Amino acid sequence: MKILVAVKRVVDYAVKVRVRPDRTGVETASVKMSMNPFCEIAVEEALRLREAGAATEVVAATVGPSQSADTLRTALAMGADRAVHVLHDPDPSRPLLPLTVAKILRALALQENPGLVILGKQAIDDDCNQTGQMLAGLLNWPQGTFASKVILNKEKATVEREVDGGIETISLDLPAVITTDLRLNQPRYATLPNIMKAKSKVIKKVTPEDLDVDIRSDMEVVEVTEPPKRKAGVILSSVDELIDRLKNEARVL
Amino acid sequence: VSTLVVAEHEGGFVKPSSLSALAAAEAIGKDDNRVSLLLGGSGPGLHKAAEHAASSHPLVSEVLVADSDVFAHPLAEPWAELLRSVQHKGGYSHVIASSTSFGKNLLPRAAALLDVSPVTDVTSISEPRVFVRPIYAGNALCTVRYTGEDPCMMSIRSTSFSPTEAMSEAKVVPITQVDLSFLSEGSSGKSAWVNLKSQDTERPDLANAPVVVTGGRGLKSAENFKVLEQLAEKLGAAVGATRAAVDAGFVPNELQVGQTGKIVAPELYMAFGVSGAIQHLAGMRDSKVIVAVNKDADAPIFQVADYGIVADLFEVLDELLKKLPDKK
After folding, report:
1. Do A134 and B262 touch (CB under 8 A)?
2. What is the residue range of A56's domain?
3. What is the CATH number of the domain that holds A12?
4. I need a surface site. Which of A99, B47, B133, B218 has the fewest CB within 10 A?
């Protein structure tokens, strides 16, 4: 069985993003970019399933500009077998929407025929949390979102999901789409020999047109602004003072 | 304008998060907005919730009930087909769900079936098709205009839309059973619900609690979280946690507050041993009053706290437990 993993290049999670003065977006020039952390978990899960013998091949895919190839190299250095890069240059006022990405991934899934597609549950830039669910809907495959545990047996996947009320377990017929939550695994670091090895692995380049997917954006970014700042607070010296302030100033006790 | 609100229910009542979705419907249009509320499930709880829904908001003109065992559990596959079918029949201009794990799982799948792009985590509605939503863990706010076809679909942050006061029982709106003949041909059956492991707790729901006390890595152990729970008991508060505390196994995942966990905005948020990573701040920055207790004076949490105490959190907890009166 083949596993298709979708990965996204985003502003590194540790970067404090700044809104651009012209309010068109956030500053991304000379900002550290990395693989979206949830996508790292997705790659790791696919690799573990392959290492456990439940899968034979891991294919990483991304949609994005030429620099996104770095993110695919990271996936290959972690251990993915090969990669597909769907080239698309972004337009800040008309962002690439999850629905379009899902349509591109559907086209790839129909070509590659995986038994499982694993994605991060959300990207930490646009925080949309949509692509996996949409891909599953478009393919008419079952979905196991926000997964914290995945067990594969021949034709089914048992998925534990992090939901509002606790941990929900569902059973899915394969092929299926899974999106990862934080507790699913701890992604590995790429070792130097594996980074070297990844350089000779194949990244196939295609365009949305090759896949017959129309880039349609039904969302216009009007402006991007800073959130309102909280007023600086005070440091108190005692618990008595805290109780007094909460009672008489903030009036929340 | 016509709006479909996809609602959740529990114990015979529409959930507070879904009442917030109704408040969002009101923000889209008050005078010319026909609101239908969709409920699914089976058994007496569903019908009691439908009656609650019928008098839940003055704008609700119809309650749609999908009564089938298929909807007894929140599986996205049959639910997305239900939503597609109800939308095809009703031709709504807007579809709203709350950003709960149910809504997040369902709405994008249903949107893909309808070939439209939904807007995630709406916190403010400026025009019927112009919305504000946080991006980059709330470090930026993005205003977007939806320019696609109907329906304009969105998930809303329930903390940003306060439910209106319950209306008088005088208005009775029709409760209609949804035609479920679409179920035969769909993808239902490819997924099955197995179980839900949840912690039994007497505490208020984290997402709606008026007071939240949160522990971070500084709590050091699951045992120590029990002290935090005693404080929560006194304050009638819900207990929350940071990712670090959840990852360390101190508390279960459903207590995580943050960018990808629960979003809370209580009257009072008390953080003990929380450093204040941006991913955590994303989940609580809209709280009305923030208290932080941390022995590290440079912890970023103090930059958003209204009141800070730089001290050993266990000493502060002990003192608070002694000095705070019990909540009646």
Report:
1. no
2. 2-228
3. 3.40.50.620
4. B47
Q: Supply the pLDDT for residue B170.
A: 59
Cα-Cα end-to-end distance for chain A: 58
**Rounded CA separation B254/B124 (Å):** 26
Per-residue pLDDT reduced to its tens digit, B244-259: 999 999 999 999 999 8
Residue A237 within a domain: no
Q: Residue B39 in contact with residue B19, Cβ under 8 Å?
A: no
Structural Rg of chain A based on CA atoms: 21
Name the maximum alpha-carbon separation found in chain A: 69
Considering its fold, how many domains does chain A have in total? 1
ipTM higher than the 0.90 cut = yes
For the stretch A46-64, pLDDT in tens is 999 999 999 999 999 999 9
Residues 131-160 of B with CB under 8 A from A: 134-149
pLDDT at B2: 97
> Does the beta carbon of B321 lie under 8 angstroms from any beta carbon of chain A?
no
Q: Which helix (H) or strand (E) holds B290?
A: strand B289-294
Task: Give me the domains of chain B, ranges plus CATH numbers.
Answer: 2-185 (3.40.50.620), 211-323 (3.40.50.1220)
Q: B244: closest CA among B204, B264, B272?
A: B272
- Inter-chain residue contact A230 with B304, CB threshold 8 Å: yes
Judge whether A233 lies within some domain: no
Instruction: Tell me if B140 and A26 make a contact (CB, 8 A cut-off).
Output: yes
Sign of CA dihedral A149, A178, B261, B71: negative
Q: Can you list the residues of chain A whose pLDDT is less than 70? A: none
Nearest to A8 by CA among A124, A108, A95: A124
One-letter identity of residue B175: I
Q: What is this structure's pTM?
A: 0.94
- Is the residue at A28 inside a domain? yes
Coil vs helix vs strand at B155 = strand
